[in-house]
Amino acid sequence: MSLFSRLVVSTLPLVPKGLVGRVARRYVAGETRDQALATVRALNEIGAMATLDVLGEEVRERGKALAAVEEYEALFDAIEASGVDANVSIKLTLLGLKIDEDFCRDNVERIARTARGHGNFVRLDMEDRTTTDTTLRIYHALQPRYGNLGVVLQSYMRRTLDDIAALPAEGANVRLCKGIYIEPRRDAWKGYETVRHNFVAALTKLMDRGVYVGVATHDELLVCAATAVVDRLGLSPESWEFQMLLGVDEPLRDILLARGHRLRVYVPYGPDWYAYSMRRLRENPEIAHHVIRATLGLS
Ligand code: FDA
Fold first, then answer.
1. pLDDT tens profile 145-196
2. DSSP H or E segment with residue 95
3. d(Cα 58, Cα 91) in Å, to the nearest integer?
4. 52 and 89 in contact (C-beta within 8 Å)?
5. Distance 81 CA to ligand 1 centre (A)
6. Measured from the CA of 128, which atom of ligand 1 is nearest?
7. What would the DSSP string read from start to end of 199-253?
8. Which domains occur in the chain, in start order?
9. In whole angstroms, how far apart are CA 62 and each of 67, 90, 93, 96, 100?
10. Cα distance between residue 191 and residue 244, in whole Å
11. Is 116 a catalytic residue?
12. Catalytic residue among 53, 105, 125, 129
């Protein structure tokens, strides 16, 4: 990222919310369940699967967390009724993790139970380091009972190889990504190449152990490394998948689909789009260009 782009990124919090919304529209399916399902249908038509995420995080009121659980319950009905190919992703701080761990676990359990009733699957997104232990604890508590949960590990975290060693030998399903939150050096690898290196180490360890991996990246080097690991281990196409974010590098998505890879797109929706959109904009190498065009009313 150029110095100018980095400067724009650091001033992003000052950009009016309406403008952020316009620039970040590509990353979010819309505010409603129907808009999200329409996006999933379009993705299914080009051969991609989806994971649906109800936007929201850092919730401090029980009522808001319970409303999110109800939205997920309605979402499973809607997925089944519409026949789309989608599972769901959940953020535990939306479901009350910052209120009380037991309350959050009960909410995740309700979602897991409903998902199981619909033959569906639930991915626990991984948030910042203050949530890693509790997220993994809830995953380890519920997965043996429900069998339809997966978790996320981040290759920037120094602990990730140990977390892989602690996974159950059978039935684990892990999304591996680099990690997006800003963490101190004590906890996270900092070099761009170091994080890539640890991604390949973690991916190899997961696949060696027979874990189903969602390889969540748009980084060509890691896409290439993943296909090499799969080739070396002789894995079948059904035993892993690529994952990408809505609105990011669609040409790469189409290339991977054309080559016959399983690929799932993360489709977030809901009125609480701001925090998620800001994270996506911070990662966008062309952010300066987009913000300036939007400021001038050109996009
Ligand atoms: P990198 O950031 O190096 O990007 C590689 C290339 O992709 C860039 O050069 C650019 O071309 C393109 N690109 C990436 N982001 C872009 C953007 N926003 N706009 C435009 N172009 C962009 N993180 C986390 O901490 N917890 C989680 O639970 C998840 N979940 C998750 C699910 C899925 C399906 C994906 C793909 C990613 C996540 N992430 C995540 C985010 C992840 O940790 C990481 O921040 C982003 O995927 C970007 O990292 P890349 O591996 O793509 O590499």
1. 999 999 999 999 999 999 999 998 688 999 999 999 999 999 999 999 999 9
2. none
3. 9
4. yes
5. 31
6. 25
7. HHHHHHHHHHTT-EEEEE---HHHHHHHHHHHHHHT--GGGEEEEEETTS-HHHH
8. 29-269 (3.20.20.220)
9. 9, 16, 11, 7, 9
10. 22
11. no
12. 125
Query: 187: how many CB neighbours lie within 10 A of its CB?
Result: 13
Is the per-residue pLDDT at 293 higher than 90? no
- 189 in Cβ contact with 217 (< 8 Å): no
233-243 mean pLDDT: 97
**The pair of three-digit structure tokens given for residue 220, joined into one six-digit string:** 């060509």
What are the tokens at 109? 């359990």
Task: Tell me which of 178, 276, 291 to substitute to probe ligand 1's pocket, judged by most ligand atoms within 8 Å of the beta carbon.
Answer: 178
Residue 126 and residue 135 in contact, taking contact as beta carbons nearer than 8 Å: yes
DSSP string, 144-182: HHHS-EEEEEETTBTTHHHHHHTS-SSS-EEEEE---S-
Angle between helices 220-233 and 250-258 (to 10 degrees): 20
Residue ranges around ligand 1 (CB below 6 Å): 125-126, 152, 154, 175, 177-181, 216-219, 243-245, 248-249, 266, 280, 283-285
The rounded mean pLDDT for the chain is: 94
- Rounded to an integer, what distance in angstroms lies between the CA atom of residue 79 and that of residue 117? 12
Under 8 Å between Cβ of 121 and 77:
no
Which pair of structure tokens corresponds to residue 193?
């190449």
| AA letter at 41 | R
User: What ligand 1 atom has the least distance to the C-alpha of 244?
Assistant: 36
CA of 179 to the centre of ligand 1 (A): 8
Query: How does residue 8 score in pLDDT terms, banded at 50, 70 and 90?
Result: confident
Nearest residue (CA) to ligand 1, atom 15: 283
Residues of the chain with pLDDT > 70, as a percent, come to 97
187 included as an active-site residue:
no
Bridge partners, 149 (sequence order): 122
